[in-house]
Amino acid sequence: MAAVKPISPFRLSSLLRxxxxxxxxxxxxxxxxxxxxxxxxxxxxxxxxxxIISKLGRAKMLDEIEQILLQLKQDTRxxxxxxxxxxxxxxxxxxxxxxxxxxxxxxxxxxRCERTIKSVNSLLNAFLKCRDFDKMREFFVGIGKYxxxxxxxxxxxxxxxxxxxxxxHAWELFDEMLKRGLCPNLVTFGTLIYGLCSSLxxxxxxxLKEDMVRVYGIWPNAHVYASLIKGLCGVGELxxxxxxxxxxxxxxxxxxxxxxxxxxxxxxxVGRKNExxxxxxxxxxxxxxxxxVTFNVMIxxxxxxxxxxxxxxxxxxxxxxxxxxxxxxxxxxxxxLCRDEKISEANDLFDDMRRRGCVPDVLSYRILFDGFxxxxxxxxxxxxxxxxxxxGYAPRCASLHKFINGLCDEGNSExxxxxxxxxxxxxxxxxxxxxxxxxxxxNGDKLPAKLVDALSTT
DNA sequence: CTAGGGTTAG
Length: 458
Known about the structure:
Elements: H1 9-18, H2 22-30, H3 46-58, H4 62-74, H5 82-94, H6 98-107, H7 117-129, H8 133-141, H9 151-163, H10 167-179, H11 186-198, H12 202-214, H13 222-234, H14 238-250, H15 257-269, H16 273-285, H17 292-304, H18 308-320, H19 327-339, H20 343-355, H21 362-374, H22 378-390, H23 397-410, H24 413-426, H25 431-440, H26 449-457
The structure holds one DNA strand.
């Protein structure tokens, strides 16, 4: 019987490139030649490592990546490129795992890979994604050990100030980068304009848009316009926002779905429904397809009107057009249903979203928990709370107060007891809530030791 | 895919 020709290292890369399913790609990588005897080890190429890691990264399969990295570390023939590590650090940032991002950065030399400003910046941005500003600052102070900060490093720092709402601090960083001889670029200005607009300082934002052209010869792009338009919508200047859009058309810039979604949302929020729908038609006829965000804007509007049938129809339309609803699409409808006291329908949709492969986030749990509490369905609330804690999420403080108050009012000490235990274990309870709960139990000596411990550390 | 824009609650 003729033996099947074994897969060569070169061919493995082509197969990995073609394979859409990350799990199958992983199997292929781990065992490229299942039928042939393993006389000598398979000689993986750098490209095949690169391909499998990017595939797994896009699928958020981080533990599997860890395995591949271990193999890569031991495969001493290979000198990995820095970009692989930049990418994995980015994946850790997205997954809110700042310590693992830092750990990988520290291990890079043991992979025979040199660290430049690129991986330094990836790490800074991972910290930013995780909103770990302390780690960011601490790392930036010692950054000189690894590399000299560049424009990108400053852009990340400026962005971190903007998301914290301290635009003035962002300006200080801008001055500092100039002093260090670094040139601001389009991203720098885009970020500063974003910060000014988020702080509703639209006048200054427009001034900067002029200055970037006048002083630096850098022209605004769609990112800049999106921030400006959102800022103008935020201060209720819809007409000015529409003028911005006209300016983009005049200067032959392409209107993308972000521009349209922002404007449609702004118009709907001030009740200019016909113009919003007009823009929706215009975007389609301009060859700009509505995406998940555009549909979410529509879903949000329908839910605000308590028109859930229409919201469901948007979900159907998304399916027809091959646009996957995301966690926001579901959260908006679940939240709307809860507000309209259709809690069991909200709970059904919550189950639905998971069946359809959409992972609930902290907000999904909070919305549903609040819904159950408002409807005084404390048993169901306790069930969701348990699940939420299991996933490492905590309820909002005010919700927890309401919940515990509700249980106290009902005199449901049994359920309260169970819930306090989970809360104590999850470290998810503040001292006020403890106080409220404790007051229900007049005899302090009846408290289980674990709760007393937790109380004394709060 | 070293960095920037648009949609969710309160």
